[in-house]
């Protein structure tokens, strides 16, 4: 769906988007990209309060491992609670979210022929003391997952002592390397689902996010 005039212009005129170009070159170069302020403070506030409202209504479920035919809850692997987001029933906050995601997806498909046809997103809350052990997102036996995207919805004053880093395991010039990323509000991390193992370090303060996947057919 086309949200506003600038998006319409972009889609019709094929203008180059410097941010999206940077994401594309990061992905080609190192298989991940970090964008601070992908969402501004107002957008994060709206998304965070919507998440908290739904969390307080008790709509979240303990996250499982495996896909729907192979669902196991394993607290020793992951401790987060999730709520899948249905785009067809999006409220104001989710519309803000999907407008940006859809604009990025349209750009990736148009300029890189990425063939992204599906997407799935969920809210996630990691309560105090929880984590997600090192994994590859395709162990959910869904080979269609192409790009993983995580967007953090924590408070403005999120501190490194709160833990909850996303650790990405990668290689640079043949050497193992770990990239530790703090879940700062508005930050989005995008990475190749089939390629990069990653983990969420134990959190000391509840950690809020939207996580999702851009999928091929
Ligand atoms: C996941 C995941 C990372 C994060 O949900 O599969 O790896 O930083 N999340 O929340
Ligand atoms: Mn993951």
Condensed summary:
By secondary structure, this protein is an alpha+beta fold. The chain contains four helices and eleven strands, in the order ααβαββαββββββββ.
In CATH terms, what is the fold-level topology? Jelly Rolls
The share of residues in helices is 25-40%
> How many helices in DSSP terms?
4
Query: What spatial form do the alpha-carbon principal axes imply?
Result: globular
The CATH H-level homologous superfamily: q2cbj1_9rhob like domain
CA radius of gyration is 17 Å
Walk me through the structure.
This is SM-20-related protein. It comes from Christiangramia gaetbulicola. One of its GO terms (molecular function) is L-ascorbic acid binding. Residues 112-216 form the Fe2OG dioxygenase domain. Its cofactor is L-ascorbate. The mean pLDDT is 91. It is built from 4 helices and 11 strands; from the N terminus they run H-H-E-H-E-E-H-E-E-E-E-E-E-E-E. The radius of gyration is 17 Å and the shape is globular. Helix 3 packs across helix 4. Helix content is 27%, strand content 29%. It is an alpha+beta fold and 217 residues long. It has helices at 5-13, 18-30, 41-56, 92-112; strands at 32-35, 61-62, 81-84, 118-126, 132-135, 145-152, 166-172, 175-181, 188-192, 197-200, 207-215. It has one domain (36-215): Jelly Rolls, CATH 2.60.120.620. The structure holds N-oxalylglycine (OGA) and manganese (II) ion. The site of N-oxalylglycine (OGA) has 8 residues, from strand 10 and strand 11. N-oxalylglycine binds next to strand 10 and strand 11.
């Amino acid at each position: 769906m086309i949200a506003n005039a600038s998006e319409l212009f972009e889609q019709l005129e094929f203008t180059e988007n410097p941010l999206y170009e940077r994401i594309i070159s990061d992905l080609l170069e190192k298989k991940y990209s970090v964008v601070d302020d992908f969402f501004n403070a107002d957008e994060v506030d709206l998304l965070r309060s919507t998440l908290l409202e739904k969390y307080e209504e008790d709509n979240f479920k303990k996250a499982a491992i495996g896909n729907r035919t192979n669902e196991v809850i394993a607290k020793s692997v992951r401790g987060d609670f999730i709520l899948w987001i249905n785009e067809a029933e999006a409220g104001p906050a989710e519309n803000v979210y999907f407008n940006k995601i859809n604009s990025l997806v349209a750009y990736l498909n148009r300029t890189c022929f990425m063939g992204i046809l599906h997407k799935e997103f969920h809210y996630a809350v990691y309560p105090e003391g929880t984590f997600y052990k090192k994994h590859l997102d395709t162990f959910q036996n869904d080979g269609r997952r192409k790009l993983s995207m995580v967007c953090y919805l924590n408070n403005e004053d999120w501190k490194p002592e709160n833990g909850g880093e996303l650790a990405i395991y990668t290689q640079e010039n043949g050497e193992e390397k770990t990239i530790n990323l703090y879940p700062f509000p508005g930050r989005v991390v995008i990475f190749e689902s089939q390629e990069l193992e990653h983990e969420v370090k134990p959190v000391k303060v509840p950690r809020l996010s939207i996580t999702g996947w851009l999928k091929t057919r």
